[in-house]
């Protein structure tokens, strides 16, 4: 009876395994977007080769052990009910020595190439040689998106890393919050991104393409949707991309929808999202800006007696958020999980949780949490139309920019709208996050206005908390913009 039951259980298990087999084996398909069996560069190729070597070694071990097992089962099986026990080999000295030494050889055979490769890859992609001219990238992980900085190039982007082919890329890995992990299966194995710890890895692509990456360390609610792309180019195309990232978008002309969206963005989105790091000063200050927002967020999150996170007032509207400079030139958004189209942007703005559960924007942004600020369908359309204009403008735009006569007050108003000032300060008397700014010139001298912009901690208006206004405006806007901003502020009645 017992035998019958267990044999039917065995059959059920076998059936289940057969049904699951296609799903399990599909994970190994070389054509898969994240398959490690179709490596696209020397690092991943070395790692693939090690895997294949270990796989065949395991096959040999499997065949030898199974052959011995099957031989023993048939050779020594009980043929008659009254058969005698075969000779017992328990404690056989030669056998004990043999199956102790054999695994040692197997493990040494695995360890020597593996450990050598690990140390080699710390230096560079090939044979432990340090590459002559690696491309340097700083990758910073955030809950739940990736920030990529090109040091010395004044270029910053999010969730889409562009690299040239056939050149080693040295990626310095860091995190602004918890432990994440950087993994592009077709380019290299994964390495952890640890706050305050300088992990480094190399990647290199040997063909043009788009390679999917993802966070490979559980890091919170949206971990599974923390993805990114690596786009590899021919070297010349890569340089073109890099240049384009330093160009301003084309001015918005005859597009009232996008024009209205720009104002909405300045009022509601620009405190957390940068859009202008194509300007060198802003690119240089962006890391500090993101870190500042993250620090404010951390300060604002408190825990109650049960360890549940609670928040404090207005501070919480600030959080490090993906850089949106030239967003419309990207393939995807929302940390690489959805194709970038105007329709998808509208869906995202309407309800980001519908696309990426757990994202901080839905949780924190006043437009989702304050009924007075909820966006109408028309406003959603306006914002999406504006975001679609965020892409590198024509090259000529850069050349003419310096020669056009600009009215300083109009310029100052642009600075006010584009730097997050308008998200916290009204130009009237109402208090938003910070004080209303009307009549500023009557209350303060030009020097005092300048100081409260460049060193906000020095003068804090009574009744407002210290440490809310980011302290880096002085370093991320040019002197020219700062002077224009002050002139504009002095016009507010
Ligand atoms: Cu970041 Cu998982």
Hetero groups in this structure are: dinuclear copper ion
Span between N and C termini?
Answer: 94 Å
Low-confidence stretches: 397-404
Strand fraction equals 5-15%
State the CATH topology of the largest domain.
Answer: Cytochrome Bc1 Complex, Chain D, domain 2
Task: Tell me about this structure.
This protein has 493 residues and is an alpha+beta fold. It folds into 4 domains: 36-80 and 87-128, Helix Hairpins (Orthogonal Bundle), CATH 1.10.287; 135-244, Immunoglobulin-like (Sandwich); 256-387, Cytochrome Bc1 Complex, Chain D, domain 2 (Orthogonal Bundle), CATH 1.10.760; 405-489, Cytochrome Bc1 Complex, Chain D, domain 2 (Orthogonal Bundle), CATH 1.10.760.10. 44% of the residues lie in helices and 14% in strands. Strands 3-2-1-5-8 form a 5-stranded mixed sheet. The chain has a 5-stranded mixed sheet with strand order 4-10-9-6-7. The chain is elongated, with a radius of gyration of 30 Å. Residues 397-404 have low confidence and may be disordered. It binds dinuclear copper ion. Dinuclear copper ion binds next to loops.
């Amino acid at each position: 009876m017992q035998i019958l039951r267990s044999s039917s259980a065995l059959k059920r298990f076998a059936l289940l395994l057969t049904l699951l087999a296609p799903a399990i084996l599909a994970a190994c398909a070389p054509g898969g977007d994240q398959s490690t069996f179709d490596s696209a560069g020397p690092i991943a190729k070395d790692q693939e080769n090690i895997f294949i070597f270990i796989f065949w070694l395991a096959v040999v071990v499997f065949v030898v052990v199974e052959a011995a097992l099957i031989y023993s089962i048939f050779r020594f099986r009980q043929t008659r009910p009254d058969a005698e026990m075969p000779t017992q080999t328990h404690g056989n000295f030669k056998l004990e020595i043999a199956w102790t030494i054999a695994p040692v050889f197997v493990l040494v055979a695995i360890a020597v190439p593996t450990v050598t490769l690990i140390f080699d890859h710390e230096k560079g992609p090939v044979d432990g040689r340090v590459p002559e001219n690696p491309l340097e990238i700083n990758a910073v992980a955030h809950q739940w998106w990736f920030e990529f900085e090109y040091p010395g190039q004044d270029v910053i982007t999010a969730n889409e890393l562009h690299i040239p082919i056939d050149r080693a890329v040295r990626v310095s890995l860091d995190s602004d919050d918890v432990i994440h992990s950087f993994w592009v299966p077709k380019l290299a194995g994964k390495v952890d991104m640890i706050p305050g710890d300088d992990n480094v890895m190399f990647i290199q692509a040997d063909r043009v393409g788009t390679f999917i990456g993802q966070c490979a360390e559980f890091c919170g609610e949206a971990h599974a949707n923390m993805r990114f792309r690596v786009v590899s180019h021919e070297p010349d195309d890569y340089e073109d991309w890099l240049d384009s990232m330093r160009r301003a978008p084309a001015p918005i002309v005859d597009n009232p929808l996008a024009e209205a969206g720009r104002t909405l963005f300045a009022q509601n989105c620009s405190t957390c999202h940068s859009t202008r790091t194509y300007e060198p000063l802003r690119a240089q200050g962006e890391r500090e800006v993101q870190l500042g927002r993250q620090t404010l967020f951390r300060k604002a999150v408190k825990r109650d007696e049960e360890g549940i996170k609670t928040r404090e007032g207005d501070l919480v509207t600030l959080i490090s958020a993906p850089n949106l400079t030239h967003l419309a030139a990207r393939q995807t958004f929302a940390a690489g999980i959805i194709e970038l189209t105007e329709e998808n942007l509208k869906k995202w703005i309407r309800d980001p949780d519908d696309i990426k559960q757990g994202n901080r924007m839905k949780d924190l942004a006043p437009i989702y949490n304050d009924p007075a600020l909820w966006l109408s369908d028309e406003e959603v359309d306006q914002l999406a139309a504006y975001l679609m204009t965020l892409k590198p403008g024509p090259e000529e735009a850069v050349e003419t920019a310096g020669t056009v006569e600009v009215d300083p007050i109009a310029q100052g108003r642009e600075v006010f709208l584009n730097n997050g000032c308008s998200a916290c300060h009204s130009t009237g008397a109402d208090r938003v996050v910070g004080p209303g700014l009307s009549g500023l010139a009557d209350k303060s001298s030009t020097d005092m206005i300048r100081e409260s912009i460049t060193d906000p901690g020095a003068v804090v208006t009574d009744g407002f908390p210290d440490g809310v206004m980011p302290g880096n405006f002085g370093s991320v806007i040019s002197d020219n913009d700062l002077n224009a901003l002050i002139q504009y502020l002095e016009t507010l009645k």
